[in-house]
Amino acid sequence: LRAQCSQRLPSPRMDLRHVPATREKGWYLALMAPNLKGPNYAWLDPSRLYCHPQGLQDCVDDLLQPFQGDPIDMVAGIDAMGFILGAAAAAVLRKGFLAIRKAGHLCVQTLAQPYTDYSGREKVMEVRTDAISPGLRVLLVDQWVETGGTMRAAIQLVERLGGVVAGRGWARPRPAGVAAVCIEDSEGGRWIREHYKCAHCVPPSLQPRFDRHQ
């Protein structure tokens, strides 16, 4: 991945004008930047991808492609980087956007859900209670699913309020589901894949490298 990145981005600054002649699924993954600050940070920084206009557009298109024709009532993005892709997806779908926040930021009535994030830290997530009504079909979007704890907490919040996140057992058309740039092959990632309709951007040939954080 780093070699691909260096080939497409020959200078330290990003070339926002460069678009490959053939845009295969996931070509924009090479725009992401590796961790340069050590183990206290995520192994990869996807935010550079969002600065590239065609890269961002193709990423969102790939995330939404599996849900074409599915009934979606609302897109929900997970604090904080899920807000970027979630809001972009909502704009493309012409649907409303709901922010699922880390606890302590919402000044209205909320529902809370404790969880353990990818770094092993105990946290609490919350969502406003007036946005999700029973049967509302929600597409959940986050930047990354590593251990699956954060996404699973968001699913629990939506379902506790009566919302629907599509499971594999649903008859077509399935309502909404889960989308992220990458869903790693962790225990939590596999559980989400097994129980919910999912979309991600990593081609099968690159998935093992992403699972190994290479």
Automatic annotation (TrEMBL):
Q: What class of enzyme is it?
A: transferase
Q: Which GO terms describe its cellular component?
A: cytoplasm
Record-linked Pfam families: Pribosyltran
Instruction: Indicate where this protein resides in the cell.
Output: Cytoplasm
Q: In which pathway does it act?
A: Purine metabolism; AMP biosynthesis via salvage pathway; AMP from adenine: step 1/1
Q: Do you know which InterPro entries this protein is assigned to?
A: Adenine_PRTase (IPR050120), PRTase-like (IPR029057), PRTase_dom (IPR000836)
Which part of the chain is the Phosphoribosyltransferase domain? Answer: 70-162
Gene Ontology BP annotations: purine ribonucleoside salvage
> GO MF annotations for this entry?
adenine phosphoribosyltransferase activity
Which reaction is recorded as catalysed by this protein? AMP + diphosphate = 5-phospho-alpha-D-ribose 1-diphosphate + adenine
Q: What is its EC number?
A: 2.4.2.7
Q: Which UniProt keywords apply?
A: Cytoplasm, Glycosyltransferase, Purine salvage, Transferase
Would you say which domain of life the source belongs to?
A: Eukaryota
Q: What is this protein called?
A: adenine phosphoribosyltransferase
Q: Which organism is it from?
A: Glareola pratincola
